[in-house]
Amino acid sequence: MIDNQAAARDQVLELGRQWAEAERSADLDALGSLLADDFVLVGPLGFVLDKQQYLGSRRTGDLKHQSLVWDDVRVRVYGEAALAVGSQTQRSTFQGRDASGRFRVTQAAIRQGNRWTIAGLHYSPISQAADAAPRP
User: Fold this and answer.
1) Is 23 exposed, middle or buried (0-12, 13-18, 19+ CB in 10 A)?
2) Could you tell me the pTM of the whole model?
3) Can you tell me the distance from the alpha carbon of 120 to that of 116, in angstroms, rounded to the nearest whole number?
């Protein structure tokens, strides 16, 4: 069981690495294959996007990343589901306006057959106060 948990955790970490690379390089085919069909994103301002809307902002070029780092990731596996909580730091524009920032991101992943996909993303801005707060 422990070996299965470790293997699943490694697979979910790899899924996140592939997602970050696809985001950085605007690889829509890769992004599309990494997301579950019923994928949903909750953005840092509370807006909600489905898979087609999420991919659409990248397809049109409305969202462009100059850099994107996905790190400090912690994964918890629950059978066929997993949560990965990490930090995303990006230099980006949306419709020509600065959309750069640091976010705490929760990735909800599900195992479909032999592969993991991202079923959801939830973004929360990381404030300077959060950076200064001691970690338990």
Assistant:
1) buried
2) 0.88
3) 12
Q: Which residues pair with 84 in a beta bridge?
A: 75, 107
Domains and CATH numbers, the chain: 2-132 (3.10.450.50)
Q: Two tokens at 84? A: 């990965």
Q: pLDDT tens digit string along 82-136?
A: 999 999 999 998 999 999 999 999 999 999 988 999 999 999 999 765 555 555 5
